[in-house]
Amino acid sequence: MRRPRRLRGCAGCGRGTGRRGLAAAEAAEAARSRPRARGAPAAARAARLRARCAAMARPPGPSRGVWAPLFWLLLAGPAACAASPGDDGAGPGGRGPRGRVRGDAGADEAVRRHDSSYGTFAGEFYDLRYLSEEGYPFPTAPPVDPFAKIKVDDCGKTKGCFRYGKPGCNAETCDYFLSYRIIGADVEFELSADTDGWVAVGFSSDRKMGGDDVMACVHDDNGRVRIQHFYNVGQWAKEIQRNPARDEEGVYENNRVTCRFKRPVNVPRDETIVDLHLSWYYLFAWGPAIQGSITRHDIDSPPTSERVVSIYKYEDIFMPSAAYQTFSSPFCLLLIVALTFYLLMGTP
């Protein structure tokens, strides 16, 4: 009997020797003879896309990271930002987002809990803006305390005072008024004068103008009273930028300029600023102002203290104005007595 011939070939073309080569050849022949289905690659791509969408639609597991909860929060929309019953205004009897009093839960279903879908912060910001649009005012700063009136009852007791004007006048009726007292390391001054311009006090080594340290309260065109520091050069006052005043306050009322400020007792050595722990003559002056700048004082010879003043000694000193000095002068009183005696005795 004739032995069958063994086939020889290569594995790449499906032919070979032995049983393995024969099986590979038969498999290749079957694959070539099988008809190819059209559209197979497109169907495979569609299947992969459906699988990917299904994977994205599944709830995220713990391995999704911190971005998955944020993703689902954005997909949830405004429902995720609704206020809980424990939030302010969420329960019965609370207040809605626009400040309205809420009633029962069923009656207030139409009131939106939050007008923003970006979270509680965005909702509260919207509510604040909406409140301002409806005319509800925002909180404002508390009003400034009014100027406390100067107390003259303490003159000569807890503070020193100088009064110039009508006998018995006070801080609101004198032509000029000054008080001083020590508070800690400072001296508090109170000044008032019958003027619409400025009122000042000068510290001098003599009773003349020139080379004096001056503190002035100036009423400007805006209605404010500012505390300024000056240095007298002859008959002119030069403003000094270095101002030792602090805790300043002032007011212009009833055609009077009134102010209050503090100044340190001890200051670094300076030509324009004196140490108040030393005794000085006090110069008193007041006058008009033009656009917040001081001009010449009202009277030619402003009053001064008769002797040096110590801030550690409290006195209540009255100085009559020119209208009352005539009858208070000793010479004038003696003249009046002589004339009266002459009239009573008659002529011989």
The 3D shape can be described as rod-shaped
Helical residues, percent: 10-25%
Rounded radius of gyration (Å): 49 Å
Provide the spatial order of strands within the biggest beta sheet.
8-9-3-2-1-13
Cα distance spanning the termini: 204 Å
Oligomer: single chain
Q: Any idea of the CATH topology of the domain at 160-328?
A: Immunoglobulin-like
Q: Stretches where pLDDT falls below 50 for ≥5 residues?
A: 6-17, 82-103, 114-118, 128-134
Query: What is the correct CATH architecture of the domain at 160-328?
Result: Sandwich
Number of helices: 6
Number of strands: 13
Elements, N to C (H/E)? HHHHEEEEEEEEEEEEEHH
Sheet having the most strands: 6 strands, mixed
Average pLDDT rating: 73
The first-level CATH class of the domain at 160-328 is given as: Mainly Beta
The proportion of residues in beta strands is 15-25%
Task: Quickly give the structural class.
Answer: alpha+beta
Description of the structure:
- The chain is of the alpha+beta class and 348 residues long.
- The chain has helices spanning 18-33, 40-57, 67-76, 120-133, 322-328, 330-345; strands at 160-165, 176-183, 186-193, 198-204, 213-219, 225-233, 236-239, 246-253, 256-264, 281-287, 289-290, 293-294, 316-320.
- The longest helix has 18 residues, at 40-57.
- The model is unreliable at 6-17, 82-103, 114-118 and 128-134 (pLDDT under 50).
